[in-house]
Amino acid sequence: QGKQGHNLPHAIKIPMMNVIFYHIGPDVSIPRMLAESIRKTGHNPVFLTDNKTEGIEGCETHRFGFTGENVVWKRMLCYAEYNQEGIYLDSDMMVMKNLEPIMALDFDVALTKVSHQIIDPKGVNLTALMPYNGGFIAVKDKTFLPAMVRHVIDTQNEADVDLTQYWYCDQMTLAEVAGTRNLVELPVKIYNKTVKKPGMDVSGAWVLH
């Protein structure tokens, strides 16, 4: 007697976690390496760029027409326009391990805190002004990235300070806006580790910068 066939349910495809990066310009060799590291660790690389920059194979690509000289401000606008849950990285970073355990934590936004004090030539404590490194931003709350853009605009209107002209406009805004959310601080040596020299031991790092 033959075996009766069974209708097997279709396998449920679980979408990969997004790891997002922004880059514009003629040379995409470094962000291409980041994209490859994102794929190798089991994530979906999302490439935010302008209408002229060369595409990167294997990436989900979104192009924006924002103009202006300050690349960081344009990146903030692109982040807010894309505005999806995931981890946003600088384009010169490398993902070494699967980052999904981070997104299992309870937070609206997760950031890496600067671990050492930075004083500028005028004696200003930059670490106090910018305690978080903008190269790593994990986001669940979809109001967060648009709120960063609004904060920059509101500061311009209320204090007559045009943060859109500052290279560190994102890091100057992170602490202010993140302080109003459920914030998790992650160790910079693991999730945003600076590689200072060739051959440096990076065995414990999940993300290199």
Summarize, please.
This protein is an alpha/beta fold and 209 residues long. The chain is 30% helix and 19% strand.
Characterise this structure:
This protein has helices at 29-40, 71-82, 100-103, 126-129, 144-159, 169-178, 188-191, and strands at 18-22, 44-49, 60-63, 86-89, 94-95, 109-113, 132-139, 183-186, 207-208. The model is unreliable at 1-5 (pLDDT under 50). The protein has 209 residues and is α/β, with parallel strands linked by helices. The chain is globular. It has 7 helices and 9 strands. The strands form 2 sheets. Strands 3-2-1-4-7-6-8 form a 7-stranded mixed β-sheet, with helices on both faces. A two-stranded antiparallel sheet has the order 5-9.
Task: Work out the radius of gyration.
Answer: 19 Å
> In terms of structural class, how would the helical and strand content be classed?
alpha/beta
Element-by-element helix/strand order: EHEEHEEHEHEHHEHE
What's the shape? globular
Distance linking N and C termini: 64 Å
Largest pleated sheet: 7 strands, mixed
Question: How many β strands by DSSP?
Answer: 9
Instruction: Please list the strands of the largest sheet in the order they lie side by side.
Output: 3-2-1-4-7-6-8
The helix fraction, in percent, is: 25-40%
**Helix count, per DSSP?**
7
Average pLDDT, rounded to a whole number, is: 90
Which blocks of ≥5 consecutive residues have pLDDT under 50?
1-5
| Beta content | 15-25%
